[in-house]
Amino acid sequence: MRQRREYHIVVLGAGGVGKSCLTAQFVQNVWIESYDPTIEDSYRKQIEVDVRAICLDLTLQEQSNLPRCGQGFLLVFSITSLSSLNELAELREQIIRIRDDENVPLVIVGNKSDLEEDRAVTRARAFSVSQHWGNAPYYETSARRRANVDEVFVDLCRQIIRKDITAAQAGEQEAYSRRRERPIRHGRRRRREKQRCNIL
């Protein structure tokens, strides 16, 4: 039986960028026509990524009270609002400060790609932000048309998995190094003790 991993993903962005619509499409395959403040702000979903069974805890947040427990972050803006993109920079800085890690798994999401005629953020501008943030993955999504919805969550899961594997390998290497050091120290002590006996 395969072990199921649990990851906590936080969906962040300014109000009105489509965080709830994006998440509801991913979890429930439903399109929310109009915003309802009573909509859940947390979800759970089981998925499979590269033959790994994963249970996702999803939390929707705006600017304040960033959770410390998020393992990956979707930073969502609307392609129809330049200010919503600009707000992501402060959110990213807060995440890095809280997590004390420059390489936190994250994906930049330009939502509402179906509103091309109202576009205020060019693709070039969004890609520039992506490059400035260490080539963070950038996707344009449409919650209405379900375009690239699954892809952003899967990409983020892959980043978390890679980070987990790297951390596990580093831990194993450190444990192996410690095990190798111990016998060497004991051996040296024994040799010293024998030498002392011989001298006496």
Can you walk me through this structure?
With 200 residues, the protein is of the alpha/beta class. It has a single domain, classed as P-loop containing nucleotide triphosphate hydrolases (Rossmann fold, 3-Layer(aba) Sandwich), CATH 3.40.50.300. It is globular and about 65 Å long. The mean pLDDT is 86. InterPro entries: P-loop_NTPase, Small_GTP-bd, Small_GTPase, Small_GTPase_Ras-type. GO terms for molecular function: GTP binding; GTPase activity. Pfam families: Ras (PF00071). Keywords: GTP-binding, Nucleotide-binding.
List the defining traits of the structure above:
200 residues, 6-stranded mixed β-sheet, single chain, 44% helix, Rossmann fold, alpha/beta, 6 strands, globular, 4 helices
Strand neighbour order, sheet with most strands:
2-3-1-4-5-6
Largest sheet: 6 strands, mixed
> What is the helix tally?
4
CATH topology, what is it called?
A: Rossmann fold
For this structure, the quaternary state is single chain
Number of strands: 6
CATH architecture level-2 label: 3-Layer(aba) Sandwich
Question: N- to C-terminal separation?
Answer: 62 Å
CATH superfamily: P-loop containing nucleotide triphosphate hydrolases
According to CATH, what is the class?
Alpha Beta
Given the helix and strand composition, which structural class is it?
A: alpha/beta
- How much of the sequence lies in strands comes to 15-25%
**Approximately how much helix is present in the residues?**
40-55%
Q: Indicate the radius of gyration in whole angstroms.
A: 23 Å
Q: What is the N-to-C succession of helices and strands?
A: EHEEEHEHEH
Shape, principal axes of CA atoms: globular
> Averaging pLDDT over every residue, what do you get?
86
- In total, the number of domains comes to 1
Report the uncertain regions. Answer: none
